[in-house]
Amino acid sequence: MSQARVVASSPFKKKGELAPPRRKLKTPWLFIFLCMSPWLFGMVFFTAYPMISSFYQSFTKFNLIESPKWIGLENFHRMFFEDSDFWQALKNTVWISVISIPLRIAFAMFTAWVLTKPKRGRNIYRTIFFLPSMVPAVAATMAFTYIFNPAYGPINRMLEAIGIKEPPFWFLDPKWSKWGLILLGLWGIGDTMIIFLAGLLDVPTSLYEAASLEGASGWQSFRYITLPLMTPVIFFSTVTGVIGSFQYFTQAYVASGQVNDYSHSMYFYATHIYFSAFRAYEMGYASALAWVLLVITLLCTLVILKTQKRWVHYPNGSLFK
Amino acid sequence: MQAREELEIQSAKARRSKKWNNFLHMVGNHSLLIALSAIFIMPLYLVIVLSLMSKGQAETRSLWPHPFVWHNYVEVFTAVPFLKWTLNTLFVSLMGTIGTVVSSVPPAYVLSRLQWKGRHTTFIILLSTMMLPGQVTMIPVYIIFSRLHWIPSFLPLIVPSFFASAFSIFLLRQFFTSIPDEISDAARIDGCSEFKLMMRIIVPLAKPAISAIALFAFLGSWNDFFGPLLYIVENEDLWTLGIGLNAFQGIHHVDKNMMMTASALFMAPVILIFFFSQKVFIEGVTLTGVKG
């Protein structure tokens, strides 16, 4: 019986006969090269050459008009010892990463978890939750700076109506402006939430059933089933969150333009690079800033990668199979 | 007999209380979901409401327009060159989309459907460029474009998209890999060339993934602010919606309510596109874990 099935499944092989040698296909190198060429060209001219060039420029003084002048490590010295804006930008960036990355993860997981509950209507809610993440950043930021404006925005009026006596001045107050940006970010949580939702729906229901038979409480089954199985997603969002927050620009730039942010409370690392390069035209110094940014993000990523063995569970082995 | 009846009554009670419990759960879940939905909708609702108020009323923290000034939606086109900004944005986004699709399909095909030496390494390099912060390459790329005398013009915003985006290649590759190899083998045995195989068989099968990268590319440039800020800010004729809108506060005769009208119009196409194609989006995000 089993023999018959083998014969049936391999058309080349009859009993006692060798399979014909499989014709080895020649690798179509020309085709491969032609197909890869757009990417290769982009890789060389928009990635590899610029990387080398900006690395070199980071050791020079360069204002676009005169040719770059080698000044050794002076840019880096200036950055760490003379440039107070650099420290301000770094402080703001670290602050917002530390606060907003965990908040984003918790909020994304919470909204995704709520979405797994209903039997009907999930798609409608999912659409509503996801929608804000599609809104253009400029429009979203303008809307937020307006509706959160203490003088004419409706949000503070609503807060007063629910009994908050002195609601914050949000974007107008240096102490609160970053919280405004964090709320703006949480509003656009949709794409992160979708990943968490996919992860949560992947958790086998049999695990929960088993847990409830054993008498586990809701919190226990979250703590010992859901959370461990979600660690790969949490890990992924932490890494992309760190990379993202060092490039956080548009929202902060637009918001600080709308409210005249004199105290630099919304001045972030990417803003500092932009201003050094395209307002002050200090290309050499801006390149040095960009390379420090690359090193910082790499270090953060490495640290998270190093710790992942301790807290990330991959049910099917590694993420990169 | 009596024992059995009692048991039945008990189980009926249990069923009823279970039903009641389920009902309570449902009410709880939906109230939570509705509350969250209200929070997510609130800013969009406020933008629309404010966009319909008169100038005076828009500065009074009101929550409902009185009267409705529909005229705002006409006036915004005369107060600022809104139509020109829209057309500019549309042009850049469409060209960028075409560029991305045309140039990302072939590399993705080669990286997923063919076996060759160095494929794995190439893919790793591609993935690592996805993680590279744009700031590191930004300045030399700007210098290249300025040497070509392409600043200010749309070219720096459009041309790079014709050299493939790592993200699109990655998304397409994930999808191509899921198409069974037997399909290609059968076509190859029939003497089909690789190019034909790609265009006639794999591309039609991968329509969902291709529409996903097209949508992401379109929205990516529609929503882009940084690129236009670098390359077209100097020439007002080239302004996109993002740049124009951000400059709003500097244009003196434009009022706050008009700003919200313009924002609403800026968001509208994105929201419409999303409603008609959300499945594509959500699958795209789930497949790659990132947006755009």
Automatic annotation (TrEMBL), chain A:
Residues 90-304 form the ABC transmembrane type-1 domain. GO terms for cellular component: plasma membrane. It is found in: Cell membrane. Keywords: Cell membrane, Membrane, Transmembrane, Transmembrane helix, Transport. The keyword Membrane applies. PROSITE patterns: ABC_TM1 (PS50928). InterPro entries: ABC_transporter_permease, MetI-like, MetI-like_sf. One of its GO terms (biological process) is transmembrane transport. The keyword Cell membrane applies. Gene3D superfamilies: MetI-like (1.10.3720.10). The chain crosses the membrane at residues 29-52, 94-116, 128-148, 179-203, 224-249, 285-305. It is a multi-pass membrane protein. This is Unannotated protein. It comes from freshwater metagenome.
Automatic annotation (TrEMBL), chain B:
It is a multi-pass membrane protein. The chain crosses the membrane at residues 32-53, 90-111, 123-145, 157-176, 197-219, 258-276. PROSITE patterns: ABC_TM1. CDD domains: TM_PBP2 (cd06261). Its main location: membrane. One of its GO terms (biological process) is transmembrane transport. Residues 86-277 form the ABC transmembrane type-1 domain. SUPFAM superfamilies: MetI-like. InterPro entries: MetI-like (IPR000515), MetI-like_sf (IPR035906). The keyword Nucleus does not apply. Coiled coil: none annotated. Keywords: Cell membrane, Membrane, Transmembrane, Transmembrane helix, Transport. GO terms for cellular component: plasma membrane. This is Unannotated protein. It comes from freshwater metagenome. The lineage of its organism: unclassified sequences, metagenomes, ecological metagenomes.
